[in-house]
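Hi R.,

Here's the chain you asked about this morning:
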Amino acid sequence: MSTATDAQPQPPQQPQLPGMDPVVTLLLVLVVALVLGAAGYVCVAHPSLIGPITAVAAALAAVFGVVAVRRR
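And the predicted structure, written out as tokens:
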């Protein structure tokens, strides 16, 4: 005895657009918000660290800017 399977037509799948998954985007936004909040708190609690934190933030912004430009 052979078993026959009914082939049901599959609904057409939407093409995947190049981009990020919404969950990854949400997590990225959450992490960025937490890091900025923590840096802000440290700057308020310890004013002597404003200079070094600003220097690190500027360097990171430059690196992210270069990476963003190269991806295009």
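Residues 22-71 form one domain.

Let me know if you need anything else.
M.
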